[in-house]
């Protein structure tokens, strides 16, 4: 594991979400935004209107950002390298459970085209980017605990493509762990976390058993994310 990735894993430790509390949230909460409900309701759900306002404009999920063909091209390119590694489960203090990962600097033409599109929509113009792209493969039983990516090594914006499975990304304010925002990261979507959503909220990927959106079960299968980051200013 590279230094960068190891450092980016410094978790801001939080007691894991209380499960029964979570259930109450997932069954009743799904704050619906009434008549003005827009496209956003398909991927954004929060425990209060305030918390939704706090992240609006700083989180974004673009559904179907890549086609099935593009997903397949990316998958083929990363699968050979990933297959040689074993999923890691037993490091209790890791931010991520049940994963294997790699970084890639050089991509084939099809993937490079996709990554160029990601960079164009996600990052401020002229923002220096982290060269290697991070590829994270979560086993069906894998999950990512709440953490904030290293502020020393990564800048204001994190952009990730989701391959193979839908999943739920949860954001929790660092200073108020009872509030939360859930993002439905559908298969082939692109998510973008910016500024406060990246610096002042922890993010996590829920385990299959806890994976609900608006009270609806969202089965979590093996999931590969392809993540681009920029450099700190
Ligand atoms: O899999 C993802 O989309 C997020 C991964 C993540 O949070 C990380 O590697 O820091
Ligand atoms: Fe990471
Ligand atoms: Mn992260």
From TrEMBL:
Alphabetical UniProt keywords: Dioxygenase, Oxidoreductase
InterPro entries: AlkB-like_sf, ALKBH7-like
GO molecular function: dioxygenase activity
Top-level taxon: Eukaryota
Gene3D superfamilies attached to this UniProt entry: Alpha-ketoglutarate-dependent dioxygenase AlkB-like
GO cellular component entries: mitochondrial matrix
Cofactor(s) this protein cannot do without: Fe(2+)
Gene Ontology BP term (one): DNA damage response
Name the record gives this protein: Alpha-ketoglutarate-dependent dioxygenase alkB homolog 7, mitochondrial
Name of the coding gene: alkbh7
């Amino acid at each position: 594991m590279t230094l960068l990735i190891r450092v980016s894993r410094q978790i801001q430790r939080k007691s894991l979400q209380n499960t029964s509390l979570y259930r109450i949230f997932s069954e009743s909460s799904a704050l619906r935004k009434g008549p003005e409900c827009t496209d956003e309701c398909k991927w954004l759900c929060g425990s209060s209107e305030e918390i939704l306002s706090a992240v609006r404009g700083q989180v974004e999920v673009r559904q179907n950002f890549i086609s099935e063909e593009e997903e397949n091209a990316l998958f083929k390119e990363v699968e050979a390298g990933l297959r040689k590694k074993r999923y890691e489960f037993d490091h209790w203090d890791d931010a991520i459970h049940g994963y294997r990962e790699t970084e890639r600097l050089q991509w084939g033409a099809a993937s490079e085209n996709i990554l160029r599109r990601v960079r164009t929509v996600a990052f401020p113009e002229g923002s220096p980017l982290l060269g290697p792209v991070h590829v994270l493969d979560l086993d069906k039983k894998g999950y990512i605990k709440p953490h904030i990516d290293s502020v020393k090594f990564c800048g204001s914006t994190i952009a990730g493509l989701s391959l193979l499975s839908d999943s739920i990304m949860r954001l929790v304010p660092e200073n108020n762990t009872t509030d939360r925002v859930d993002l439905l990261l559908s298969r082939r979507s692109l998510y973008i976390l910016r500024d406060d959503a990246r610096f002042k909220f922890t993010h996590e990927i829920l385990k299959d058993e806890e994976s609900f959106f608006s009270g609806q079960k969202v089965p979590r299968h093996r999931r590969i994310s392809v993540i681009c980051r920029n450099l700190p200013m």
